[in-house]
Request: fold
Amino acid sequence: MFRKITDKSYFIILILWLISSFVFFYYVKVRYGEPPIYGNIDWSRYFNGANSIISLQWPEWPSKFYIFYLLYLSLSLKFYFPLSSLMFNCFFNLLSSYLIFKITLNLFNIRAAWISIIIFLFYPYVQMWVYFIQPVSFFSFCILLVTFLITFKLNLRISILILIAGLMVLSARPNGIGIYLS
Reply:
């Protein structure tokens, strides 16, 4: 049975997300420098792959293994980069927060949903990556989207969405799931 999230719950999640965002923005700023932080070694392959997409060319190896992340990054490169990339990461992180809450609420209960959202929002090794130009936030969102869709009763529309979201997961993160399919 699907449980409805109340407006009060949405608001509390938003407040917790804002607190978490400020805490981890400050943490990343003190530890690594002003966000968004480029991924040093990985940055050139992301940048080159996204530029290939922008110029309507198929990315070269190894970029072709994370095509959905490159599509996502190419949107950022075209609009006020790097600030747009940081804003997209924050937006996907907020959506991920709501998805985690809803998935847990549907599968368990309200107490488990609140515990899971607090763990997600205040776990440093997940939240600090929001402030890096890396595929971690996007990849996490894609996995949560698939999980959320799987909890629905299957019909043709949900099946197509699961297929698309599944393909996004398979090709959203280098050295993630997609590399093993090559």
In short: Strands lie at 37-38, 132-133. The helical segments are 7-32, 43-54, 67-78, 83-107, 110-122, 124-127, 136-150, 156-170. The CA atoms of residues 36 and 131 lie 5 Å apart. The chain has a mean pLDDT of 82.
